[in-house]
Write a structure and sequence with these properties.
By secondary structure, the protein is an all-alpha fold. The chain has helices at residues 15-23, 32-45, 50-54, 57-63, 69-72, 77-83, 93-109, 114-122, 145-156, 164-173; strands at 130-131, 177-178. Helix 2 (32-45) packs antiparallel against helix 7 (93-109), helix 2 packs across helix 8 (114-122) and helix 2 crosses helix 10.
């Protein structure tokens, strides 16, 4: 039986990647708390492979209190230090502290309201996914004018680890941009 044709970035035979590709990547996500989580996971990935984070998502959710901004915004330096002892996450002080900083920004600029955060993010794409028609790995951009604007606005509101490349990867992951290759079985979904 022939295997499914997937996007060129998805390594054949890597079950973790295949499940992520087939069930989550590019699927529109509107839940503001899940968007907050994914934005922080994309930030944690900066300079690393997504596989590094993908295999640790459960550890991240447990260590970071389910990515609840109301809880994270109250973390102390001692709590950050405790998180840095967890071998199940990437133990980078700037990235761990960045999650806390992002929680402060979420609480401050969006009044802790997930729906407001979701609308803010989805407004960058007029509330509906951008559907691209790429074929080869080299066709896919790493940033766009839209991700540039999102990055600038998130930074202005106090978020960190939200450069344009991270924002574009976030947009792809959360379905704001549907970048499934035209040859991929998920393209028309």
């Amino acid at each position: 039986m022939p295997s499914k044709i997937r996007c060129p970035w998805c390594p054949p035979g890597d079950e973790l990647y295949e499940i992520y590709h087939d069930t989550q990547w590019g699927v529109p996500e509107y839940d503001g708390l899940k968007l907050f989580e994914m934005l922080n996971l994309e930030g944690a990935q900066a300079g690393l492979s997504w596989r590094t984070i993908l295999g640790r998502i459960d550890n991240y959710r447990k260590e970071f209190d389910g990515f609840d901004p109301a809880i994270l915004s109250k973390w102390t330096e001692a709590r950050i230090a405790r998180a840095l002892l967890n071998p199940g996450i990437v133990r980078n002080r700037l990235k761990v502290a960045g999650v806390v900083k992002n929680a402060w920004a979420f609480m401050d600029h969006f009044n802790g309201d997930p729906a407001t955060f979701s609308r803010f993010l989805w407004d960058f794409v007029d509330g509906k996914p951008i559907r691209n028609r790429f074929r080869e790995l080299n066709d896919f951009p790493v940033r766009t004018d839209v991700s540039d604007r999102m990055s600038k606005e998130l930074k202005r509101r106090g978020f960190t680890f939200v450069g344009s490349t991270i924002c574009y990867a976030f947009m792809q992951a959360t379905g704001m941009v549907n970048d499934h290759a035209v040859t991929c079985f998920r393209f028309g979904v």
